[in-house]
Amino acid sequence: MNCEEIIRLISGYLDDDIDDLMRDMLERHFEECERCLSLLHTMEKTISFSRELNKRKKVPETVIRKVYWEVRIRYKK
User: Fold this and answer.
1) pLDDT score for 58
2) How far apart are CA 27 and CA 9, in angstroms?
3) Largest CB tally within 10 Å, which of 33, 58, 69, 71?
4) Mean predicted confidence (pLDDT) in 44-58
5) Full DSSP string of 25-36
6) Domain boundaries of the chain, sorted by first residue
7) How far apart, in whole angstroms, are the C-alpha atoms of residue 73 and residue 77?
8) Are the beta carbons of 13 and 40 closer than 8 angstroms?
9) pTM score, two decimals?
10) Which positions ≥6 away from 39 have C-beta within 8 Å?
11) pLDDT at residue 10 above 70?
12) DSSP the chain
């Protein structure tokens, strides 16, 4: 597999959405290719940071109420 094919499959790899054979092929490629391994680590860190950020931030209750009422008013039948 070339790097372009690997890059298209990284998301499935991270989501555990590929079969074992494909996973093994990607892992062998990562062992040999610093560029793809670096991209994998960057994506892992981005996902991790995003999850942490979302854990810390909560939407204020007033905003939730405003959105709720705005949706009710606009889409009331």
Assistant:
1) 76
2) 11
3) 33
4) 82
5) HHHHHHHH-HHH
6) 3-75
7) 9
8) yes
9) 0.67
10) 7, 10
11) yes
12) --HHHHHHHHHHHHTT-S-HHHHHHHHHHHHH-HHHHHHHHHHHHHHHHHHHHHHH----HHHHHHHHHHHHHHH--
56-71 residue pLDDT tens: 677 788 888 888 777 7
Residues 57 and 4: their CA atoms lie apart, in Å, by: 36
Whole-number pLDDT of residue 76: 65
Contact 6, 32 (CB under 8 A): no
> Are 14 and 44 within 8 A, CB to CB?
yes
Query: Do 36 and 29 contact (CB within 8 A), yes or no?
Result: yes
What is the token pair recorded at 41? 């680590």
The CB density around residue 40, as the number of other CB atoms within 10 Å, is: 20
Q: Quick check: 11 and 47 in contact, CB under 8 A?
A: no
- At position 64, the amino acid (one-letter code) is I
